Structure to design on (58 residues):
């Protein structure tokens, strides 16, 4: 049971961080590398998030 609770907590934390990373992407003032470094995501995860929300730089 504790393992299941930990997994749910970890997933909720990741979703919160993804929301913050998404806000940073929308502002467009930080590079993907900076967002990855600050969020703990990989650059690939930040890129995927940007693609999912059509926020890829032109």
């Amino acid at each position: 049971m504790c393992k299941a609770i930990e997994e749910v907590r970890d997933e909720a934390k990741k979703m919160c961080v993804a929301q913050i990373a998404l806000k940073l992407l929308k502002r467009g003032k930080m590079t993907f590398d900076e967002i990855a470094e600050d969020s703990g995501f990989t650059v690939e995860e930040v890129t995927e998030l940007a693609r999912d929300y059509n926020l890829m730089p032109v």
